[in-house]
Amino acid sequence: MNVHATISLSYILFEKWLSGDVFALGCAQYLIAPLFSLAGRMMTVTPDPDTIITISRVTSEPDCSVCHNTVPKPTCNPRFLQLKDPTNTSVEFTCPQPQDVFGVEINREIGMSDCEPAESSLFPDFNRTFTWDLKVVSTRAFQLDFPEPGMQQISNEETCPDEHTYSLVTYLRTGPATIGTFCKGGTVTTILARYKGRLSLQVDIDDFLCMFPTKIVSPCFSPVVAIVKANLPRGVSDTDFITANYPRDFPDDQQMRWDFTVPGMHNYTMHFRDHTAPECLQKEVEVEYQKEGKKVTKLTLTDPQPEHQQGNFNMTLKNCQTNKTLQGLTLNYKVSVMRSGHPGTVIKHEKLLVKEKINVAAGTKASLSFLDCPYEDVRLTASKVIGCRNMASCHPKVLTLPKLDSCLRMPLHNFTWHLNIPQDGTVDLVSPTGSLQQFLPGQECNQSVSLHVAEADGFSIGSFCFNGVIKKVQVHANVSITATSKDFSKNRGPFLNVSFSQEIPDSIIYRVSPGISSPTLLSTPNWPEGMRPSSTISWIVTLPSQYQAHMQFVNISQPKCKDTHTAIKVQMLGQEEEIMSRREDEKTEDKLTVSQSFYLNMSNCAPESEKFGAVTKIVLQKKTNLLAILLGIAGALLLLLVVLAVVCIVTKKKKRDKMNKESSIYIGKGNIFRPGDMHFTKSRSENESHVYDSIDETMVYGHLLGDTSYADSMQDRFKGMQMDSYQTFTGPTDGELPVIKEPDHEPEMDQYKTFLDPSETFIPSRPRTPIDRQDSLGFQDRRMVENELYTFKTTGNINTIRLSGVDMEPLTEQSM
């Protein structure tokens, strides 16, 4: 079903929904929804006069077309659309992200005028190419003047870092030729080209763009493709230039010229870095040099070019008629400039020589003249050789800077120690601070001095600072150690402690003690270029107590080998079994946890293409002691059981003590109470429990009962019953003891109820006891029994205390 049919059907269903059909609305939504997901993008464009906008496809996917609202119906094209009419025009794309599918070229033909603003407001989010067509009569030439700081020439295949790449093309009879590709910021200030040319600018961001000023010049430079003018900078510099159409062939029978402005008191030197020579059918390839007011110097591509010359000059490259079936003419060269004075910089061997680099050997003397050069433009380096023939003659060394001649007023840039050892020896490098820190390319050492260690052939072992995790570096080869500093006057060493030991099984061994606070990165030597073929590298990693290491290969490249393999092995120290072994043809985890100090080894083969290298990250983590946790849990449970047992024992003992203290008495009639009951709600000071109606003298003077005289006097009164101590009432002896029913707990009352109604007591009534009333517990105050003090202020008759609520009849002698 096409789009128009879908819309028509949806409209019919929508009308049915208006008439009350709810199901019709759902169907309409189901049909229309996909159309919204395929919605395109529309924009309005108004080209300037003499401007052509070309929209062209740059990718094959996804499916998308660009449409133009032409009359009588829109015109759509999946690949191309061109707009020339300077009127308000609508452009529609059938996909939602057309900037990923199409590119835009905005072309304008201009005359000789000043700054021309580019159409930066058109298609701002598309990749755009702005082109300006420059055209003059055949007898004239046009000139482009670049503003400060000028332009820098690059290869035609390159792009600029700021993504603003300029390219200038001239149109010859033989076809277009690229004069050059340029970026902002360089030595090129002006370009002249004849007849017709095109300046292009590639951008992909919204920016205000401006054409460079142009003007017409004469006469016509018929044999010259272009003239490039460059102002060489002051100081020491190297500037690259290339021929037109580079790296393609230079046009036949054509010329190209460079005009160079050289600062005063500066020398220039020409270096032909790369060139190809054609087979000439007519004429020859020539290079001409000319200074103002002097004759032309003609050279070939293979002749020595000018060195250490002064003054402005121009160079012209002339091509011949070439054999088109063979390679053509190309040239890539460099112009070097340095400060100078009068010729002659070094007096040596009784001759005046001009040199860029001067080596003064140990034990020799040289007279130097720097020809008014600023000291900051001269770099001073020094080196020292330390060697031994056999291990017996290899003694430990401390690397420090020697004292240099005071006539050298420029600062020392770096100092290199060359360590030569016997074939069966090893160089051991240890920092005087105790450790070294290796830093990777792109990382800066924030210390005043950095050290670079390399083998004798220049193979890099690594760059180091102080105070890191590497305790020792052992190298089984001759090495060079270069110390670099901005100011050696503040630090002249010592930089390293060097000792010598017997041959090690590996090429290099690093002894490492990772830090706890931050991750440790270990990289293979010469990273990221890769290890030396057929070499082995080892790290002996020592872990702190109670810590384990989490190791991860964050960046690794293991190439394929012809006959052997690259390998990575991890093995705990003191154990023979490997906990990890990885070859390039095996897939293993990039992460590993090691519980103790370990040995990391990497061995390389002779790779076919890629180079073997790796960066390893080590993070320390405190070990989890499972045994201690289990013992702690068991101890806690045992302690809990002990506490519970103690609580149970104490609770049980308290209950037993309480039961022992509590005792009940049998009272046949009346209330039952136990000495442990607390029936008094008031304190002793607030109630009348301490007020007595009578006091039993036998209780007061009970301790005198043992006295015979007193006992005799009291015998008559107690009818012959003599008592030495208090006798506990044991209850009735005739028959079984009655079952005593404990009363329910009485609620607290405002006033304590001492007596009970006889109806509330036990039935039958309590039998009479055979003892005196005053000897019964019913007449004793239990609080006074527990009191050790049985003395009172006054004496008198016994005033008994009734503890029972039952009215008792007076006792007679018969009842006695």
Report on this model:
With 816 residues, the chain is mainly beta. It folds into 6 domains: 35 residues; 227 residues, Spermadhesin, CUB domain (Jelly Rolls), CATH 2.60.120.290; 102 residues, Jelly Rolls (Sandwich); 119 residues, Spermadhesin, CUB domain (Jelly Rolls), CATH 2.60.120; 37 residues; 153 residues, no CATH class. Helices cover 10% and strands 35% of the residues. The chain is built from 6 helices and 47 strands. The strands form 9 sheets. The protein has a 9-stranded mixed β-sheet with strand order 30-38-32-36-39-41-46-43-44, with no helix packed on it. Strand 26 and strand 27 form a beta hairpin. The longest helix is centred in the last third of the chain and has 36 residues.
Chain-wise SSE layout:
Elements: H1 3-18, H2 22-37, E1 41-45, E2 51-57, E3 66-68, E4 75-77, E5 80-83, E6 89-93, E7 102-110, E8 128-135, E9 141-145, E10 151-154, E11 165-172, E12 175-184, E13 188-194, E14 196-203, E15 214-217, E16 224-231, E17 237-242, E18 255-261, E19 266-276, E20 280-282, E21 286-291, E22 297-299, E23 313-318, E24 321-322, E25 330-339, E26 346-348, E27 351-353, E28 367-368, E29 380-387, E30 397-399, E31 412-420, E32 425-430, E33 436-439, E34 449-455, E35 460-466, E36 470-475, E37 479-485, E38 496-502, E39 508-512, E40 520-523, E41 536-541, E42 547-557, E43 567-572, E44 578-583, E45 591-594, E46 598-603, E47 613-622, H3 626-661, H4 697-700, H5 708-715, H6 782-785
Parallel strand pairs: 7-8, 16-18, 29-31, 39-41
Antiparallel strand pairs: 1-6, 2-5, 2-7, 3-4, 3-6, 8-14, 9-13, 9-15, 10-12, 11-12, 11-14, 13-16, 17-25, 18-23, 19-25, 20-24, 21-22, 21-23, 26-27, 26-28, 30-38, 31-37, 32-36, 32-38, 33-35, 34-35, 34-37, 36-39, 40-47, 41-46, 42-45, 42-47, 43-44, 43-46
Helix pairs in contact: 1-2
